[in-house]
Amino acid sequence: MSEHELRVSKIRNGTVIDHVSGGQALNVLAILGIDGEAGESVSLGINVPSDRLGKKDIVKVEDRELSQSEVDVLSLIAPEATINIVRDYEVADKLRVERPDFVTGVLSCPNRNCITQANEPVVSKFDVVDDGVRCTYCSTIVREDIADHLDVD
Ligand SMILES: [Zn+2]
């Protein structure tokens, strides 16, 4: 085991999200709706040295296995991430990280006049395009800092 791997302890059951872009770990938690209130056990490695990325974050969530749809949303902020499902200390499954065609109910539209910002809002929907995401309703494009537009409780 390398020095890097030792920084975050092994988990028995759950999900290990590795190769997250440095500094994005807290946004990963936001996407997953993890705020500690449900008593989740989470280990974080933030800005860990990485050969491939320079610096990377690692998120280990115990007793929770991510779904492919959750992983799809993660790909927007962590395109290089690797997802390992762990059962009884062994990697039982690896999930592909692929950009989805669209995401619903995850991001909020920065356009105040957008129908998704109305008093009785419709659920947000963004098409994933080459250089970002585009609101399905008003075509506003978000290219950078997608995590700033996360709309998750
Ligand atoms: Zn919009």
UniProtKB/TrEMBL annotation:
<dbReference type="GO" id="GO:0046872">
    <property type="term" value="F:metal ion binding"/>
</dbReference>
<comment type="subunit">
    <text>Contains catalytic and regulatory chains.</text>
</comment>
<dbReference type="GO" id="GO:0006221">
    <property type="term" value="P:pyrimidine nucleotide biosynthetic process"/>
</dbReference>
<feature type="binding site">
    <location>
        <position position="114"/>
    </location>
    <ligand>
        <name>Zn(2+)</name>
    </ligand>
</feature>
<dbReference type="InterPro" id="IPR020545">
    <property type="entry name" value="Asp_carbamoyltransf_reg_N"/>
</dbReference>
<dbReference type="GO" id="GO:0009347">
    <property type="term" value="C:aspartate carbamoyltransferase complex"/>
</dbReference>
<comment type="similarity">
    <text>Belongs to the PyrI family.</text>
</comment>
<protein>
    <recommendedName>
        <fullName>Aspartate carbamoyltransferase regulatory chain</fullName>
    </recommendedName>
</protein>
<feature type="domain" description="Aspartate carbamoyltransferase regulatory subunit N-terminal">
    <location>
        <begin position="6"/>
        <end position="98"/>
    </location>
</feature>
<dbReference type="InterPro" id="IPR036792">
    <property type="entry name" value="Asp_carbatrfase_reg_C_sf"/>
</dbReference>
<dbReference type="Pfam" id="PF02748">
    <property type="entry name" value="PyrI_C"/>
</dbReference>
<feature type="binding site">
    <location>
        <position position="138"/>
    </location>
    <ligand>
        <name>Zn(2+)</name>
    </ligand>
</feature>
<feature type="binding site">
    <location>
        <position position="135"/>
    </location>
    <ligand>
        <name>Zn(2+)</name>
    </ligand>
</feature>
<keyword id="KW-0862">Zinc</keyword>
<keyword id="KW-0808">Transferase</keyword>
<dbReference type="InterPro" id="IPR002801">
    <property type="entry name" value="Asp_carbamoylTrfase_reg"/>
</dbReference>
<dbReference type="GO" id="GO:0006207">
    <property type="term" value="P:'de novo' pyrimidine nucleobase biosynthetic process"/>
</dbReference>
<keyword id="KW-0665">Pyrimidine biosynthesis</keyword>
<feature type="binding site">
    <location>
        <position position="109"/>
    </location>
    <ligand>
        <name>Zn(2+)</name>
    </ligand>
</feature>
<dbReference type="InterPro" id="IPR036793">
    <property type="entry name" value="Asp_carbatrfase_reg_N_sf"/>
</dbReference>
<dbReference type="GO" id="GO:0016740">
    <property type="term" value="F:transferase activity"/>
</dbReference>
<feature type="domain" description="Aspartate carbamoyltransferase regulatory subunit C-terminal">
    <location>
        <begin position="103"/>
        <end position="145"/>
    </location>
</feature>
<comment type="function">
    <text>Involved in allosteric regulation of aspartate carbamoyltransferase.</text>
</comment>
<keyword id="KW-0479">Metal-binding</keyword>
<dbReference type="InterPro" id="IPR020542">
    <property type="entry name" value="Asp_carbamoyltrfase_reg_C"/>
</dbReference>
<dbReference type="Pfam" id="PF01948">
    <property type="entry name" value="PyrI"/>
</dbReference>
